[in-house]
């Protein structure tokens, strides 16, 4: 007869194993099969537990948390994934690149790029009921950014459970080096164009981020505060894609231009 304690232990062992598989995929550079079926019983909560296990493992290994990212901010992508809310992931210091700094070959599995607006905070935001005014006053400056998304799951064959467990499919971020004060900028209307290898491959605007980048940021701030992991002064908040993501193979280069924020660029080194 299976006891409750045995059932809990089995579920705990399963999630630990899934977390290990994702870590090994990144370490070995070999993507794994989807894990959604094994997460199905526990749902989104179980997927976030896998993410948390890998965050804790990384911290214990000396990696440093420097911010958070929001994903699934587009209503069409949410519909595709069968969810009605965004997701989030953690940013570590070793994931952050500066404008023009190359992405090392094989650093990210199955890399794609998307343009975003990054917010850098000057205050802690510890309250689950943080107001939009409190958020706006806590934004020290804005930066144009590119997120290099990647998937440790084969062929990007992902569901919401796969991507949440996989740290919201985050690989690296690259941010511009000219900070922009947020005053007098209408971020929802800020247009974006991203070129890959000299051709415009993605266009969009701030309205793609839950209607406004500040709305996306507010969701993330409140969610992290409710989980006891609030955004802190100095941390980076990635507010979601302004347009479709684009494949980013070895040897490629990308330049994102965001109205009012300027440009940010990244190259992908070849083997």
Describe the structure.
- By secondary structure, the protein is an alpha+beta fold.
- It is 30% helix and 28% strand.
- The longest helix has 25 residues, at 4-28.
- The termini are far apart.
- InterPro entries: Fumarylacetoacetase-like_C, Fumarylacetoacetase_C_sf, Hydratase-Decarb/MhpD_sf.
- Residues 84-265 form the Fumarylacetoacetase-like C-terminal domain.
- It holds the Pfam family FAA_hydrolase.
- This is 2-keto-4-pentenoate hydratase.
Radius of gyration: 18 Å
Series of H and E elements:
HHHEHEEEHEHEEEHEEEE
Beta fraction: 25-35%
Percentage of residues in helical conformation: 25-40%
Question: Would you report the number of β strands?
Answer: 12
Query: How is the main sheet built?
Result: 8 strands, mixed
Q: With helices defined by DSSP (H or I, 4 residues minimum), what is the helix count?
A: 7
Shape: globular
What does the oligomeric state look like here? single chain
Integer average pLDDT = 94
User: Could you tell me how far the N terminus lies from the C terminus, measured between alpha carbons in angstroms?
Assistant: 54 Å
């Amino acid at each position: 007869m299976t006891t409750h304690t045995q059932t809990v232990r089995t579920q705990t062992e399963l999630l630990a194993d899934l977390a290990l598989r994702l870590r090994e995929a990144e370490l070995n550079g070999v993507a794994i099969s989807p894990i959604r079926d094994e997460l199905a019983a526990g749902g989104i909560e179980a997927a976030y537990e896998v993410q948390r296990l890998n965050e804790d493992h990384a911290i214990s290994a000396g990696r440093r948390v420097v911010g958070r990212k929001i994903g699934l901010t587009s209503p069409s992508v949410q519909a595709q994934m069968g969810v009605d809310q965004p997701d989030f992931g953690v940013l570590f210091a070793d994931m952050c690149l500066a404008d023009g700094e190359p992405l090392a070959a094989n650093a990210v599995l199955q890399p794609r790029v998307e343009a975003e607006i990054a917010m850098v905070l000057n205050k802690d935001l510890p309250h689950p009921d943080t107001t939009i005014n409190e958020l706006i006053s806590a934004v020290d400056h804005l930066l144009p950014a590119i997120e290099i998304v990647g998937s440790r799951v084969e062929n990007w064959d992902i569901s919401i459970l796969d991507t949440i467990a996989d740290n919201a499919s985050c690989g690296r971020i690259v941010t511009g080096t000219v900070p922009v004060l947020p005053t007098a900028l209408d971020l929802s209307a800020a247009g974006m164009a991203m070129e890959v290898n000299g051709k415009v491959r993605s266009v969009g605007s701030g309205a793609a981020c839950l209607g406004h980048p500040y709305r996306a940021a507010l969701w993330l701030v409140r969610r992290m505060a409710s989980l006891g992991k609030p955004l802190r002064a100095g941390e980076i908040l990635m507010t979601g894609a302004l347009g479709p993501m684009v494949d980013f193979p070895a040897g490629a280069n990308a330049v994102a231009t965001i109205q009012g924020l300027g440009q940010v660029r990244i190259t992908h080194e070849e083997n």
